[in-house]
Design goal:
With 347 residues, the chain is α+β, with helices and mostly antiparallel strands. It folds into two domains: 90 residues, Phosphorylase Kinase, domain 1 (2-Layer Sandwich); 235 residues, Aminoglycoside 3'-phosphotransferase, Chain: A, domain 2, CATH 3.90.1200. Helix content is 50%, strand content 12%. The protein contains eleven helices and nine strands. It has a five-stranded antiparallel beta sheet, covered by helices on one side. Strands 6-9 form a two-stranded antiparallel ribbon. A two-stranded antiparallel ribbon has the order 7-8. The longest helix is centred in the C-terminal third of the chain and has 28 residues. The protein is globular.
Amino acid sequence: MDRPAPAADRDSARLAWARAAVGAPALGLVRASADAGFRSYWRTTGIAPSRIVMDSPPALEDVRPWLRIHALLEAGGVRVPKIFARDVEAGFLLLEDLGPDTYLHVLHEDNADALFDAAIGQLLKLQAIPCPDDLPRYDEALLARELRLFDEWFLGHHLALVLDCDDLERLELVHRRLIDAALAQPQVLVHRDFMPRNLMPVPDGPAVLDFQDAVRGPIAYDPLCLFKDAFLSWPEERVTEWLARYHARAAAAGLPVPPRERFLRDADWIGVQRHLKVIGIFARLHHRDRKSKYVADVPRFFRYLDTVLPRYPELDPLRALIETRVRPAETMYEHWTAGTGDQIPNG
């Protein structure tokens, strides 16, 4: 893999490419957004309408998976950003500018029903797309790898916990049950991050972003992501209502959803898997990548777990581990970091 170019060189290459792609020698670029990976997004200035330049440095993040899933979704009628120019080898794309605000910026109590109805409409289109034979699967290996992020990065690196044999057996038992439940669900195309931050409120949308990691996997995964977001929480009663609304529309559309009560259980269980994964990812972003803003939302995921785990005796080993090992270690961690400039907000 090629070594990444120095930042100044990349800045110059990005600007030169954008000017040539648009045909505007005086065009400027300002930062539009960045994500948790290595891609960055830049808004053009000096032209109308403005465009977005996606910068995906080839040595760090190959743009081809994004382009492949973009084509798959677009062919299936999902609203995705329009592409006006591309240089795959350099890692630059010129995209439609969908505005500065995502669903995360505009959602509130009064408009949530309407916005989520529109999001469900896009999700149903996405889930109806046949999965290519070579699309990665949310198989046992991937599910287990994601669950281990919680063990390694949150328990190990973040809380410095050393688990004993009983703890390890608890985790292994819960991992096995979560994996079996995920594999037993009907399998469809899964975005893997179908959440408000990745939806843009445009009239014929919402437009769907950040889809490059799509796989074939559990049908309840994306609806759960939509309503139990990483950065925005809703009352459990509304979440259940929205999941039921999704279920009714999915059944009417001919998607392979199980009966409603089974679906709600599936959503709870795949939610536990996702919550553990995201806690681990946020800890990794903090400790490995020095992207510390995400870890402030870790308590949100423990609140999700606190709501769901008591419903299922089969998940009691995880509940016990959290109560006996995680919560005392969290308290000690906050004590250690107090006054050091590295204290993690409680969310």
